[in-house]
Amino acid sequence: MIKVFFSHINTSNKKKFFFLFLTLFFKTIINFLLLFYIAKVVNVSDFGSFTLSFVVMSIGVLLIDYGYNLHSLVLDYNNKEEISEKISSIISGKFYISTLLILLTLPILYFISLDETSKKVIIILSISAIPSSFGNFYFSLFKAKNNYKVETNGFLIQGLLLIALITINHFLGSKDIVTISIIVLITKITYFIYSFFQFKNEFSIQFRLSIRNAIQSYAKSYNYGVHLIFGTLIIYVETLFLSYFSDMETVGYYQAGLRLIMAASLFGAIITDGFVPEISKNQNDKKFVTNKMLNLFTFLGVFYFLTAFTLATYFKTIINTLLSSDFQLIENYTIYIILIILCRAVGIVPGVILTSLGLQRIRARVAIFLLLLSIILNLFLVPFYGLEGAFMSFLVTNVLLTGFYFYYSFKEINFINFISLKLIFLLLCYPLALFFISKDNLLHLCISILFCLLILLFTQKNLNKRNVKN
To answer: Is 125 helix (H, G, I), strand (E, B) or coil?
Structure first.
C-alpha cells in the first residue's frame, strides 16, 4: 500500500523516501514494542514508573537536541572550515546542556517524593538521553548530505540489539524495570558509538570545547529549537502533573491511553515524514503542492475514519492484545482517546504545509501559547478530576492546536476536496457492518483490518486516476 502511495515520486527521491521510512519505522516501532512488552510483564504501577522515566528521557533528548538536528540540514557543507567551526560549536552546546541537565536532575530526584525504584529508572534513562541525542545529531549530518542509509543502519542496529537483549533477559526470568532500563542504556550507548565512528570517518572536524562557541550555537539554533521543544512538551505535560498530584498507577493508565494515541498516529507520521523536504523544494509550484496535499489529506482522512471506528468497536481486544487485561480501566476514556486521535489526524497535513512553506514561526508561537494553556488546564483539572482531567486537558489542547494549524495552513493551500461516491458508500458501509456483524474479539479485528486495507487500496487507486486526469 505504501509502495502504491509513493508510486508518483520520481526515481531519484524513492531511495530517500525508502530510507526515511525505514528510519522512522525502526525509531518508533521499537519504542512501541518495548513499552507494550513492559505493559505485558509488569503491573500498572511499574508501567507508570517506567513510562514516566521514559518521558523524562524523551524530554532530555529534546532539550539536548535543541533544534540542532534541523539546523544541520541547512549548513553549507562546501565550506569545510566553516562547517568544522559550526559543528564544533554545536557539540560544545550539547555538552553544556547535558552537563546542566545532570546537575539539575540529581537534586530534583533527591527532594521529589518517588519510590527508590522509580528514581533509579529515571536516573538510568536520563543518562540514556545523552548518547541518544549525540547519536541523533551525528546522523543528521549525513541526512544533510543526502546520505540517509547511515541513519537507518544506526536505528536498525539499536533496534535489533534491544530486541535481542530483552529476549535473553525475558528467558532468564528478569523482568524488573531497572534491568530493562539498563538494557535501554546499553542500546543507546551502542547507537552512539556507531554514529560517532561513522561521523569521524566522514567529517574532518577540529573540535574545541568552548563556552563562547556554545552560547553562539544557542543563539543561531534558537528558532529551530523553540517549536520542537514547546511542541513536544505539550504531549508530556499531563504525565508530569499526574505524577505529582496522583500515583504511579494513575500515570500507568494515562500512559497506556497515550501510547494507543501515539501508535494510531504512527502511520500518518511515517507517510508524511518524506513530504516536508519534497514540498519545501517545490513550494513555489502551487499546483504541485496543492495536488500533493489534496491527495495526502484525502488518504489520511479515510485511514483515520476507518481507524476510529475500528478502535471504538474492538477497544477491549486491542487493549488485551497490545497491553494486558490490567489496563481495562481506560475503556472508560475511549471517547477521549478517539477524539484526540482524530484531532491529531486532521492536523497532520496542516503541519506539513506550515513546515514545508517555512512558516515555523507560526508553529512556534502556537506551541508556546498552547503549552502555557496546557499547564493552566492541568493545574485546575488534574487535582480535581485525576485521570479524566488529564485526558480532558490533552483533548482541549489538541483541538486548539489543530484549529490553529488548520486556519493558518488553509490560508496558504486548499487541501480539501470531494471524494468519489463509491468511496463514500464504502466508508458508510464499514461502520454499519461493524455495528451489525462484528464482535469484540481478535478474529473479527483481523477481518476488519483486512477490509480496511482493501478500502485504502481502493482509495489510492481513485487518487491515482484523479492525478492522471489532472
So the answer is: helix
Neighbours of 281 (CB within 10 A): 11
Cell numbers at 437, concatenated: 456483524
d(CA 276, CA 184): 30
CA gap 137, 404 in Å, rounded: 30
| pLDDT per position as a tens digit, 438-456 | 888 889 999 999 999 998 8
Question: What is the C-alpha end-to-end distance of the chain, expressed in Å?
Answer: 22
Cell of 236: 508530556
What is the C-alpha separation between 459 and 439, in angstroms, rounded?
A: 26
Helix (H, G, I), strand (E, B) or coil at 346: helix
CB atoms within 10 A of CB 248: 24
Is residue 254 within 8 A of residue 238, CB to CB? The reply is yes
C-alpha to C-alpha distances, 79 to 75, 86, 119, nearest whole angstrom: 9, 11, 46
Three cell numbers written together for 341: 486521535
- 213-222 pLDDT per residue, tens: 888 888 877 7
Nearest of 353, 372, 376 to residue 363 by alpha carbon: 353
- The rounded distance, in Å, linking the Cα atoms of 432 and 417 is 24
Q: Are 265 and 425 in contact (CB under 8 A)?
A: no
**Measured distance CA(13)–CA(22) in Å, rounded:** 14
CA–CA separation, 372 and 383 (whole Å): 17
CA dist 314 and 339 (Å) reads: 16
> DSSP letter string over 14-74?
HHHHHHHHHHHHHHHHHHHHHHHHHHHHS-HHHHHHHHHHHHHHHHHHHHHHTTHHHHGGG
Only one residue has cell 551502542, namely 190
Output the 3-class SS for 218-272.
HHHCHHHHHHHHHHHHHHHHHHHHHHHHCCHHHHHHHHHHHHHHHHHHHHHHHHH
Give 64's contacts (C-beta < 8 A, 6+ positions apart). 94, 97, 98, 101, 129, 130, 133, 134
Q: How far is it, in rounded angstroms, from Cα 9 to Cα 3? A: 10
Cα(123)–Cα(139) distance, integer angstroms: 25
pLDDT tens digits along 89-135: 888 889 999 999 888 888 888 777 788 888 899 999 999 999 999 99
DSSP string of 201-213, one letter each residue: HH--------HHH
| One-character DSSP codes across 277-334 | HHHHHTTT-HHHHHHHHHHHHHHHHHHHHHHHHHHHHSHHHHHHHHS-GGGGGGGGGH
pLDDT bin (cut points 50, 70, 90) of residue 350 is confident
Q: What is the dihedral of CA 360, 366, 371, 376, to 10 degrees?
A: 170
